[in-house]
């Protein structure tokens, strides 16, 4: 009973973590950018989705759709206002682009969060469940919504896999993450590829945002937390490795759930953090990291 | 060093100096303009519903007083500061209020951490300071322990202990007597304000007739409450008594989504705001929480007029600390009148003698030698708070019995003892 | 020494300090208050810059060191009631030990990995504080019985003096022989090693210095505010502000970091009338500066020297 | 003043990177006051040897002894303190400090406590600066120095450590004639001081004047040792650099020459920082022509090609099909038909051979066109057909090179730029590659621009040859005339 509870509960939350992290790791893999405004992007999607759904009574699905759209828009803004100017800047030494992108997206993230505070207050909000009601699964009373969210996450991740491994555009992404110069020599404009990857990122982050809003609820206060957790999961899995991030998401998700069930709800986040520290020390490139 | 650089440095320090000077002058000017009215500082976070209620309600009170001709000829001016609910920020705002804008009293925040950070400064800068919403016992405990220094701090809302007490009293009248509930599980966020709350819960719930089967504290960062609810359900209690404020909507929403068959009562701070229904998409149906006052319930003659005026003006009813902050402006002014001066110590003496019937009931403060010095008196005839239950989109008052008579209703999935 | 006396920068700095010291006679008590915290804050930024600018490591967790120092001092003071100086020393020791525990393994990591490890250290510390609420007062923090002074001016002078001393030491250090080696290590570890320098040793040293000053400043801040809370000395938002301040003021200049910190806090206060939006505006401006003047305020002003 | 006992003894040094053996059983020793030249083309492992001696890389086996003391596997800073110094090719001085301070840095003790350097340091630093010819720029910042000045600074730092052994990496790269002479003198001073010197460079020629002995490496192995002349005369060395005897056969129909050239490069200059990599270089290629650019490593071939492909900024005009390429992105240049197959190959290591080729073909209009092109290439390079499913990085060097070429050809280029296809390939592979090129040349009207240091590989295919040396075009003509006019003394 307890086992099956942990199993089901952990599965859903991990799937959500995974979805949130995949986009994050994708950008890093392809363009080497760590987007510390990640939480902000998810937040915008979640809040817009909630706002539309509850304010205009559009129902959760249209709300979600618009939320994802908002997430996409925010991803573009992040890229065009912060990331690209830094990448193209002549005054910023190439060796220091990393710290500038980190600081830049950090600031941008703060601006997003404060802006959201201003528009929607920092009250936590939740979207009306897309799939109300509960089902009995392995003797556990589980909200249908929770299950469907896990399903959606995996469907989307599956689609992403197809996109990357089965389409021409996907092949270009893959190639770019392995050897951008080689791709240029074959006549592909990297700028287009970056735009593509940021679009994918926007959709993924947006979706993760609205799902979070409908599953656990969000508050603009969470923005930092969301970024941090995506960051840790991605590094734990190995920067730039999509499959790594997914595994890491499940490791973290289950670790947290098990802690909450078996040890104490108060200690929930701690074992995962300790694990992260441990991994950093024994295997800095992460569980599935290349090089 | 080469010349161009040092020239630039000269420019640099020049800019800094002028900047600071100009800034300095600017604000000085600002204050010189408005020396005349009596200023009251309000420090809260506009982005939070509970925070916004504080400043709005205070402004309403000031407007009323000014409309009535102000106090001793001078008008009341509310100076609002946004502290983003950060202690550091609040301290700087407090300094600005006192040293720059020369306010005569400060109404500060609903968050214990912020209030506790400001308290030493109230003592240091001799500034009468009142919190409309923080609950931690330590606020008044400090005053008790070091009266001479901390006497400037007043606790304008019930302390955790009394909140727990009122919840126990309500539980006895409603849950036990009416619904014959016998057992409960206490579920609180792991925060400072809940420590005394839980302590009192564990004392008074059994006295009220509810055996406490389990006591669960969870991390305020928790987003997924499934484990906690499952743990509670395993204990098969008749009701869950909550102590939640920071975590917000998640427990309520997940309680509803997972259809946990156990009613929730207790303290759920966000559930006291009228927007909570929208924030949770109605998941809060049937949830019971303690509050300062409730729409449409005449705790005193002034309750209903204020609630209606506020709702009319801002489109939503005030959250619990809106009521208290509205009252506070009134009895601060009252104290100034009685003291016949805005001298800090005279005001403190006057405030201690406060006996004012406000929107939340009759306000008096405990004295120097009571356990909770400068905290609101709790009990019949004073402030008891109310219990409200969310019933199809409305907050209805269910306690105290002499003030309101609504029936309790619970969502279909909640199982009541037969 | 004579070169120092002759250098114009020295006299300008001296002038600024004197003008600053005269603050209480020409600044309002409120601005004094803001500057007081700004000065402590600038020490945070300077010690961060020593680690980033010179050793070349991005430390996301300055508040880990600050928090250790602050809480170390506060707890000793509130439980044992020792005099402030002893508590401060204790705080520094705690920060040093914690810093070493973090640095020894962390310095094997680089770039984002080092950044994340330091970030996580903060999260862990935060959790620890909440868990051991009985000693630390949890997230609402604890008040310390003793304070530096209750007189605003005295507090201001303490802070100013403290900042000036730290600035002299840190700046001096960055310009000293050791500073040169550190800078070389940060810029090109291999070449530095090829010149016979033990790079790890020097980076570790830098980390310790950074830890010591962060911890000390943290302690001082606590005894100025009269309270220690997660929100004032540990929260990530503080760490973020520190990084922004340093980058805003100009990396690798130490003094720039101090300037950045003061400007940042003054701006934040100056824009308080904007209410909840001031953070938005300040961040926006900071972002613009980073995009268009990557060398930061001081870097920009000193740019003439670079050519 | 030559010491009779060697100062530095290196024995049976081995280094593997994963599967690849970078250094195989290398041994040598250097006496005080002696200069040993370590030469070999790119990828021959010479730089790795230097790193192993300096402790920047750890050897898998072998010993490095200084005055009989075993240093192999020590951390770099301890080896440095034992008395081995290195002059890096690319200097990264401290930009905020003056030249003097930069030199002082090298004189500082490795101590955390010595905050202020003692006064002797200042004097010594000035003396050293004088000696390397930086005396009058002491208080300037490195960023304001010319390239040669920066190299001087690097040299000064090395001197400052007063090492018993000095390792110099490509001493003359990017330097002009007079600067080269000046640098030779400075290095010669090392000999006079009785230090043991190891010069690492691409070819004998540039260091011949300076060295006492030369050790030549190829593919990680020791191939020849002796005086500069001996090594230059050595057969293996000649084969590595020139290949065997030079044979040429220009294409029968040379009428391609007339009319507008397809690619026309007029007087372009390229600077890396302060180093001039191309100096007024002009070349042209007619449609259907096969042009080889011959030059030693570091002569500027790769830079020239990257300039054409738009990968490095250059001044001057580059015209393709009569239109200027200025301001066009590298990718659009490639799509325009000028496709480069770079020295570094730039394959997508984790993707399969087939996927690599497909990416090359993505620009082709139709699936049919792609399939056709693919079949043709697989027939041209049969080996790729066998390997189509396996990841590119698992291929052998030769196979990787073929894949790189095939991938470029998938784009149906109008002009194919081949940069150093023979780089680090064993002679037998060269045969296959050569055959493939011959077939390519005979079966298709393709225009090719080939950059090579291996003349025997370059010439047979060429219709016309340019010789690039020290960033300048020094010779142009028929392959036939090359042997006569340039062949001798090319090394």
β-strand percent of chain D reads 25-35%
CATH structural class of chain C = Mainly Alpha
Largest sheet properties of chain C: 2 strands, antiparallel
Find the CATH topology of chain C: ABC transporter involved in vitamin B12 uptake, BtuC
CATH architecture of chain C: Orthogonal Bundle
Largest sheet of chain D: 6 strands, mixed
Secondary structure tally: strands of chain D: 20
Query: How many distinct helices of chain C?
Result: 18
Unreliable runs of chain C = none
Question: How is this structure best described in words?
Answer:
- The complex is a heterotetramer of chains A (291), B (418), C (307) and D (491).
- In chain A, α2 runs parallel beside α4.
- Chain A is built from 11 helices and 2 strands, in the order ααααββααααααα.
- Chain A has 291 residues and is mainly alpha-helical.
- Chain A has one domain: Orthogonal Bundle (ABC transporter involved in vitamin B12 uptake, BtuC).
- Chain B folds into 2 domains: 180 residues, Response regulator (Rossmann fold, 3-Layer(aba) Sandwich); 150 residues, Response regulator (Rossmann fold, 3-Layer(aba) Sandwich), CATH 3.40.50.2300.
- Chain B is α/β, with parallel strands linked by helices and 418 residues long.
- Chain B contains 14 helices and 14 strands.
- With 307 residues, chain C is mostly helical.
- In chain C, strands 1-2 form a two-stranded antiparallel ribbon.
- The longest helix of chain C is centred in the last third of the chain and has 27 residues.
- The interface between B and C is large, with 58 and 54 residues.
List the topology elements.
The complex is a heterotetramer of chains A (291), B (418), C (307) and D (491).
Chain B: H1 3-33, E1 38-44, H2 49-67, E2 76-82, H3 87-100, E3 105-108, H4 112-124, E4 129-131, H5 138-145, H6 147-150, E5 153-155, H7 160-178, E6 183-189, H8 194-208, E7 211-218, H9 226-235, E8 239-244, H10 250-257, E9 264-268, H11 276-279, E10 288-291, H12 303-314, H13 320-339, H14 344-352, E11 356-358, E12 361-363, E13 386-391, E14 394-399
Parallel strand pairs in B: 1-2, 1-3, 3-4, 4-5, 6-7, 6-8, 8-9
Antiparallel strand pairs in B: 10-13, 11-12, 13-14
Helix pairs in contact in B: 2-13, 3-4, 7-8, 13-14
Chain C: H1 2-6, H2 8-21, H3 23-26, H4 29-54, H5 62-79, H6 84-106, H7 111-131, H8 133-136, E1 142-143, H9 152-175, H10 177-187, H11 189-194, H12 199-225, E2 227-228, H13 230-233, H14 236-249, H15 255-270, H16 278-292, H17 296-301, H18 303-306
Antiparallel strand pairs in C: 1-2
Helix pairs in contact in C: 4-9, 4-12, 4-14, 4-15, 5-6, 5-7, 5-12, 6-12, 9-10, 9-12, 10-12, 14-15
Chain D: E1 6-17, E2 20-31, E3 35-39, H1 46-54, E4 61-66, E5 69-70, H2 76-82, E6 84-87, H3 99-107, H4 119-132, H5 147-160, E7 165-169, H6 177-192, E8 196-201, H7 204-208, E9 213-218, E10 221-226, H8 228-233, H9 235-241, E11 263-272, E12 275-285, E13 290-294, H10 301-308, E14 315-320, E15 323-324, H11 330-335, E16 338-341, H12 353-361, H13 367-380, H14 382-386, H15 397-410, E17 415-419, H16 427-443, E18 447-452, H17 455-461, E19 464-469, E20 472-477, H18 479-487
Parallel strand pairs in D: 3-8, 3-9, 6-7, 7-8, 13-18, 13-19, 16-17, 17-18
Antiparallel strand pairs in D: 1-2, 1-4, 4-5, 9-10, 11-12, 11-14, 14-15, 19-20
Helix pairs in contact in D: 3-4, 3-5, 4-5, 5-6, 12-15
């Amino acid at each position: 009973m307890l086992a099956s509870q942990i199993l089901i509960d952990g599965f859903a939350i991990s799937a959500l973590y995974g979805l949130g992290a995949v986009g994050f790791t994708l950008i890093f893999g392809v363009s080497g950018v760590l987007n510390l405004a990640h939480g902000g992007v998810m937040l915008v999607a979640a809040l817009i989705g909630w706002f539309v759904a509850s304010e205009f009574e559009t129902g959760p699905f249209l709300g979600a759709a618009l939320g994802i759209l908002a997430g996409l828009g925010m991803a573009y803004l992040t890229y065009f206002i912060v990331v690209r100017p830094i990448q193209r800047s002549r005054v910023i030494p190439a060796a220091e682009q990393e710290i500038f992108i980190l600081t830049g997206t950090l600031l941008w993230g703060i601006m997003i969060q404060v802006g959201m505070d201003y528009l929607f207050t920092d009250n936590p909000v939740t979207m009306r469940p897309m799939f109300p009601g509960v089902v009995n699964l392995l003797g556990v009373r589980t909200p249908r919504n929770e299950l469907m969210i896990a399903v959606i996450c995996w469907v989307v991740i599956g689609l992403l896999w197809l996109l990357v491994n089965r389409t021409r555009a996907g092949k270009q992404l893959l190639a770019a993450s392995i050897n951008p110069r080689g791709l240029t020599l074959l006549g592909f404009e990297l700028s287009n590829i970056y735009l593509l990857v940021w679009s994918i990122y926007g959709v993924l982050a947006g979706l993760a945002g609205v799902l979070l809003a409908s599953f656990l609820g969000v508050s603009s206060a969470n923005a930092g937390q969301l970024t941090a957790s995506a960051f840790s999961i991605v590094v734990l899995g190995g920067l730039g490795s999509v499959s790594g991030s997914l595994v890491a998401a499940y490791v973290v998700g289950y670790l947290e759930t098990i802690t909450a069930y078996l040890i104490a709800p108060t200690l929930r986040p701690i074992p995962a953090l300790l694990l992260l520290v441990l991994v950093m020390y024994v295997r800095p490139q992460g569980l599935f990291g290349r090089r | 060093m080469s010349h161009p650089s040092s020239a630039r440095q000269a420019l640099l320090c020049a800019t800094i100096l002028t900047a600071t000077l100009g800034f300095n002058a600017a604000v000085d000017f600002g204050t010189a303009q408005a020396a005349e009215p009596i200023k009251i500082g309000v420090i809260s976070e506009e982005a939070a519903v509970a925070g916004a209620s504080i400043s709005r309600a205070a402004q309403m009170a000031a407007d009323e007083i000014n409309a009535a001709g102000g106090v001793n000829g001078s008008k009341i001016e509310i100076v609002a500061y946004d502290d983003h609910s950060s202690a550091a920020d609040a301290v700087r705002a407090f300094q600005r209020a006192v040293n720059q804008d020369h306010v005569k009293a400060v109404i500060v925040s609903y968050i214990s951490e912020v209030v506790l950070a400001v308290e030493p400064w109230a003592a240091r800068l001799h500034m009468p300071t009142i919190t409309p919403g923080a609950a931690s016992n330590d606020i008044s405990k400090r005053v008790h322990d070091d009266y001479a220094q901390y006497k400037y701090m007043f606790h304008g809302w019930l302390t955790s202990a009394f909140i727990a007490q009122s919840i126990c009293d309500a539980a006895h009248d409603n849950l036990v007597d009416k619904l014959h509930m016998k057992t409960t599980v206490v579920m609180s966020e792991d925060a400072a304000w809940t420590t005394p709350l839980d302590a009192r819960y564990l004392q008074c719930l059994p006295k009220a007739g509810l055996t406490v089967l389990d006591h669960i504290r969870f991390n305020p960062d928790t987003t997924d409450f499934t484990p906690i609810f499952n743990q509670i359900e395993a204990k098969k209690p008749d009701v869950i008594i909550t102590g939640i404020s920071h975590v917000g909507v998640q427990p309520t929403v997940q309680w509803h989504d997972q259809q946990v068959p156990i009613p929730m009562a207790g303290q759920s701070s966000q559930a006291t705001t009228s927007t909570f229904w929208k924030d949770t998409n109605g998941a809060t149906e049937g949830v019971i929480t303690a509050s300062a006052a409730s729409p449409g319930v005449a705790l005193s003659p002034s309750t209903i007029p204020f609630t209606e005026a506020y709702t009319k003006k801002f489109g939503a009813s005030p959250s619990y600390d809106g009521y208290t902050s509205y009252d506070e402006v009134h009895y601060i002014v009252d104290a100034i009148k009685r003291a016949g001066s805005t001298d800090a110590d005279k005001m403190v003496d006057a405030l201690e003698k406060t006996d004012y019937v406000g929107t939340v009931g009759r306000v008096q403060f405990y004295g120097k030698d009571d356990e909770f010095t400068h905290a609101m008196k709790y009990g019949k005839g004073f402030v008891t708070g109310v219990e409200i239950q969310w019933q199809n989109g409305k907050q209805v008052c269910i306690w105290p019995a002499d003030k309101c008579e609504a029936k309790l209703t619970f969502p279909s999935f909640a199982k009541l003892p037969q | 020494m004579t070169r120092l006396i002759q250098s114009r920068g020295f006299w300008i700095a001296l002038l600024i300090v004197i003008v600053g010291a005269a603050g209480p006679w020409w600044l309002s008590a409120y601005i004094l208050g803001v500057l007081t915290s700004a000065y402590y804050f600038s020490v945070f930024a300077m010690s961060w810059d020593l680690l980033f600018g010179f050793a070349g490591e991005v430390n996301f967790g300055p508040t880990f060191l600050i928090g250790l120092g602050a809480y170390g001092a506060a707890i000793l003071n509130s439980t044992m009631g020792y005099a402030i100086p002893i508590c401060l020393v204790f705080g520094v020791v705690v920060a040093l030990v914690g810093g070493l525990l973090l640095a020894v393994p962390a310095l094997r990591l680089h770039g984002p990995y080092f950044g994340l490890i330091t970030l996580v250290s903060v999260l862990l510390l935060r959790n620890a504080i909440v868990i051991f609420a009985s000693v630390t007062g949890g997230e609402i923090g604890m008040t310390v019985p003793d304070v530096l002074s209750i007189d605003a001016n005295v507090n201001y002078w303490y802070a100013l003096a403290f900042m000036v001393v730290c600035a002299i030491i840190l700046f001096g250090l960055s310009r000293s022989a050791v500073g040169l080696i550190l800078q070389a290590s940060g810029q090109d570890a291999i070449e530095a090693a090829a010149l016979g320098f033990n790079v790890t040793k020097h980076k570790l040293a830098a980390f310790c210095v950074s830890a010591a000053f962060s911890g000390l400043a943290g302690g001082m801040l606590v005894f100025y505010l009269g309270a220690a809370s997660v929100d004032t000395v540990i929260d990530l938002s503080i760490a973020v502000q520190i990084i922004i301040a340093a980058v805003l003021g100009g990396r690798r200049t130490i003094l720039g970091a101090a300037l950045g910190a003061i400007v940042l806090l003054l701006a934040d206060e100056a824009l308080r009338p904007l209410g909840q939006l001031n953070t938005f505006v300040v961040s926006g401006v900071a972002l613009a500066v980073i995009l268009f003047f990557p060398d930061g305020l001081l870097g920009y002003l000193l740019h003439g020297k670079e050519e | 003043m030559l010491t009779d006992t060697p100062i530095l003894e290196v024995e049976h040094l081995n280094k593997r990177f994963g599967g690849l053996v970078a250094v195989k059983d290398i041994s040598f020793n250097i006496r005080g006051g002696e200069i040993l030249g370590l030469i070999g083309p790119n990828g021959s492992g010479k730089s790795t040897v230097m790193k192993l001696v300096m402790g920047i890389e750890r050897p898998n086996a072998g010993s490095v002894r200084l005055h009989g003391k075993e240093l192999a596997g020590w951390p770099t800073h301890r080896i440095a303190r034992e008395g081995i110094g290195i002059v890096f090719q690319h200097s990264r001085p401290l930009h905020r400090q003056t030249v003097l301070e930069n030199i002082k840095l090298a004189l500082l003790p490795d101590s955390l406590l010595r905050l202020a350097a003692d006064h002797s340091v200042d004097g010594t630093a000035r003396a050293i600066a004088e000696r390397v010819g930086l005396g009058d720029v002491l208080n300037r910042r490195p960023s304001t120095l010319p390239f040669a000045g920066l190299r001087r600074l690097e040299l000064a730092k090395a001197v400052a450590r007063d090492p018993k052994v000095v390792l110099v990496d490509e001493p003359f790269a990017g330097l002009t004639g007079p600067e080269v002479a000046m640098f030779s003198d400075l290095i010669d001073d090392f000999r006079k001081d009785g230090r043991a010197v190891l010069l690492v460079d691409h070819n004998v020629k540039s260091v011949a004047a300076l060295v006492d002995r030369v050790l030549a490496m190829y593919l990680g192995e020791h191939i020849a040792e002796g005086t500069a002349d001996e090594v230059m005369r050595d057969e293996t060395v000649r084969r590595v650099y020139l290949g065997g005897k030079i044979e040429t056969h220009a294409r029968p129909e040379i009428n391609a020459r007339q009319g507008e050239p397809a690619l026309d490069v007029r007087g372009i200059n390229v600077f890396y920082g302060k180093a001039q990599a191309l100096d007024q270089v002009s070349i042209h290629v007619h449609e259907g022509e096969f042009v080889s650019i011959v030059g030693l490593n570091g002569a500027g071939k790769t830079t020239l090609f990257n300039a054409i492909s738009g990968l490095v900024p250059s001044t001057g005009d580059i015209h393709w099909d009569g239109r200027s390429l200025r301001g066009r992105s590298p990718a659009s240049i490639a799509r325009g038909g000028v496709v480069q197959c770079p020295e570094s190959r730039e394959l997508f290591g984790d993707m399969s051979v087939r996927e690599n080729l497909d990416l090359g073909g993505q620009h082709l209009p139709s699936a049919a066109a792609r399939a056709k092109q693919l079949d043709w290439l697989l027939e041209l390079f049969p080996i790729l057909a066998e390997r189509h499913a396996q990841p590119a990085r698992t291929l052998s060097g030769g196979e990787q090179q073929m894949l790189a070429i095939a991938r470029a050809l998938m784009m149906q280029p109008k002009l194919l730029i081949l940069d150093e296809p023979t780089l680090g390939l064993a002679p037998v592979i060269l045969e296959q590659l050569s055959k493939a090129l011959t077939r390519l040349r005979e079966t298709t009207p393709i225009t090719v621009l080939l950059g090579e240091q291996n003349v025997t590989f370059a010439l047979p295919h060429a219709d016309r040859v340019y010789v690039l040396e020290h960033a300048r075009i020094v010779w142009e003509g028929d392959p036939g005339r090359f042997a006569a006019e340039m062949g001798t003394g090319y090394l």
